[in-house]
Amino acid sequence: MNLVLLGPPGAGKGTQAVRLVQKFGMLQLSTGDLLRAAVKAQTPLGKQVATVMAEGRLVSDDLVTSLLRENLTAHLAAGRNSFLFDGYPRNLTQAQLLDELLVSLNIGVDQALRLVVSKDILMQRLCGRRVCRSCGATYHVLFGPPAKEGICDKCGGELYQRADDNEESIGNRLAIYDKEIQPLVEYYQAKGLLVDVNADEEADVVFPRIARALGSEV
Ligand code: AMP
């Protein structure tokens, strides 16, 4: 199964992606994670996109699509055949580019799952989000703090606040999402692939809804 995961920043895409991977065995391809890795490694691409990302703006369709193509092709060559697209597509052009790319690789999108969350909950989640530098696990300073402040429960890694999790960048990211999401939703609706899931509650409550929406029980 190839699944597109849609939803605003803070909807819990990363958290739910981990569970989806565990349950359905897909490979998660997060363009945000791939870009952050490039920034951290200070590759030429990373240097090019660091400022745009920190300000919460979108990286160009060309750059992000080439990065995705490169990763997807490598994973297919390594025998993987079921993918979870997280953070891509972000706009209608990317949805069309993704379809072209998948057709050229003889695969396609089976479902587009949108996580729907109210604005005030998103703001609260994003402002307090902390991420482990080593394993990528996410925490929240109020709603899901680690046992020891600043330290990951799972691997002991250092927790940090993403450069784009500040109020100004969050505002930019949510505004971009609001502007781009409707055409994307209509695109997948017209293909009969869109499923909406309410993701206002905590992750453990949301995941069974996702599993049911995908025709499975937890
Ligand atoms: P995310 O981790 O999905 O919230 O993405 C973090 C940042 O990476 C975004 O705010 C963008 O700057 C960039 N980014 C991730 N995915 C895309 C994409 N599909 N198109 C353009 N920029 C992206």
Written description of the protein model:
The protein is α/β, with parallel strands linked by helices. It has a domain at 3-117 and 177-213: P-loop containing nucleotide triphosphate hydrolases (Rossmann fold, 3-Layer(aba) Sandwich), CATH 3.40.50. It is 49% helix and 15% strand. The chain has eight helices and eight strands; from the N terminus they run E-H-E-H-H-H-E-H-E-H-E-E-E-H-E-H. The protein has a five-stranded parallel sheet with strand order 2-3-1-4-8, sandwiched between helices. Strands 6-5-7 form a three-stranded antiparallel sheet. It starts with a strand and ends in a 5-residue tail after the last helix. The model has no long low-confidence stretch (mean pLDDT 95). It binds adenosine monophosphate. The site of adenosine monophosphate has 17 residues, from helix 2 and helix 3.
